[in-house]
Specification:
The chain is built from 13 helices and twelve strands. The chain is an alpha+beta fold.
């Protein structure tokens, strides 16, 4: 009951100086909203990338020329590596007992057009017929090309939903044709819509048979990736070891040298991403925390002014029986209410800004509850930490001196 009375007195004191209270909140609002926005955006980024990587499947890995590169020296060293070759796919298939499926895919960027409709900068993938059995691209309509059509270099195209909508508006693309760099390809299938993330449209692609790609667009060896699916998730490490042995053998890598190719799994990419974003997260939160410290200092300053202005009031309350702890609690509550109000407003603004940011870059993520919890803890801690000194100063005032204060 006494605590509730003290709390009401704190609220009344803050209401009596609305402008000063509002200005005091600003620092905490800016700091908390910055923390919420940054943490929500980073959480959304991680979740979206994780979602994309999960589409690769837990039992799949990709052999690439570069792999996961985390520093400049490793990048320049990787540039010396020989590109992967298409024949490696057959070698892995023959030498890896724990591998269930092996596919190859290369890509380039080109223009596609049909009559007056023209799309630039479209990702054109040259893939083996079994690529859809490994990557998570579902068939929406029509069919994918066959092994025989790939082997003979048939000019067929399997297109993403965006290509279908923008190149063939209002018509069914199946059975019609389009041109890739002036070469005619017949459309046989459309992928189910996948959506977009980070501003990148995942439905803006065209798959053509690998051998037709090489014939019309060049080998693109630097972009060749080999997709390998292990017979089970448990067999993934074994499949990677067997594929590594095959690749080291055919690329003549000495036993005392590192691999001259990279192997990428969804877990490895997530681990690398977490490693990078960990430092970014700490750095950005530390920067935004400066605003919180400034907000805390403002709270302490205002509370000190309040103690000075209300010295006679404190003296009167003490002379009629108020104890030190009552005065301490009153001023501590005022500080806590200020920082909590700033925190709640900051959380609201941060959630709105985070939501806008998430929508702008097409991440499928709601603002993080973790970030909201951090905002509440930080704002509460700021109020308690910076409010304790003015509250103690007020509580320790002697009644006689306080009453004689002018």
């Amino acid at each position: 009951m006494i605590v509730w009375e003290i709390f009401k007195m704190a609220l009344n004191a803050l209401r009596a100086n609305k402008l000063r209270t509002s200005l005091t909140l600003l620092g905490v609002v800016i700091g908390v909203s910055s923390v919420i926005t940054i943490v929500s955006a980073l959480e959304g980024l991680s979740q979206s990338i994780k979602s994309e990587l999960e589409s690769l499947g837990p039992s799949t890995f990709i052999v690439t020329r570069f792999g996961i590169i985390m520093n400049e020296d490793a990048f320049f060293e990787a540039l010396k590596r020989k590109p992967l070759e298409y024949r490696y796919m057959d070698e892995i298939e023959a030498g890896c007992r724990s591998c269930e499926k092996v596919a190859a895919r290369t890509y380039t960027i080109a223009e596609v057009r049909r009559e007056r409709h023209r799309l630039r900068n479209v990702v054109i993938g040259g893939a083996t017929a079994n690529i859809l059995e490994i990557v998570d691209i579902e068939l929406g309509q029509g069919r994918h090309f066959t092994y025989e059509e790939d082997r003979t270099g048939s000019r067929l195209a399997f297109i993403g939903a965006t290509i279908a909508e923008e190149l063939f508006p209002g018509t069914d693309p199946i059975g019609k044709s389009m041109k890739i760099n002036n070469v005619k390809y017949d459309i046989i299938g459309i992928a189910k819509k996948r959506g977009s993330a980070f501003g990148e449209d995942h439905d803006r692609f065209v798959f053509v048979p690998y051998h037709a790609f090489v014939k019309d667009l060049g080998e693109q060896g630097n972009n060749l990736d080999i997709f390998v699916k292990a017979v089970s998730v448990e067999k993934l490490p074994e499949a990677m070891d067997e594929a590594r042995v095959v690749l080291r053998s055919i690329r003549h890598v000495p036993y005392n040298k590192d691999d001259d190719f990279g192997m990428v799994t969804a877990d490895a990419v997530m681990a690398a991403l977490n490693d990078v974003t960990k430092y970014i997260r700490f750095g950005l939160v530390a920067i935004s925390s400066i605003a919180l410290i400034v907000g805390g200092i403002i709270i302490m300053n205002i509370m000190m002014v309040s103690v000075t202005e209300r010295t006679r009031e404190i003296g009167i309350r003490k002379s009629i029986g108020a104890k030190q702890k009552n005065i301490l609690l009153q001023f501590l509550f005022e500080s806590l209410v200020l920082s909590l109000a700033g925190g709640i407003i900051g959380i609201t603004i941060g959630v709105v800004l985070g939501d806008i940011l998430i929508n702008l870059i097409n991440m499928n993520m709601t603002p993080s509850l973790f970030a909201i919890a951090i905002g509440l803890v930080i704002s509460t801690g700021t109020g308690l930490f910076f409010g304790i000194y003015p509250a103690m100063k007020a509580a320790r005032l002697q009644p006689v001196k306080a009453l004689s204060y002018e």
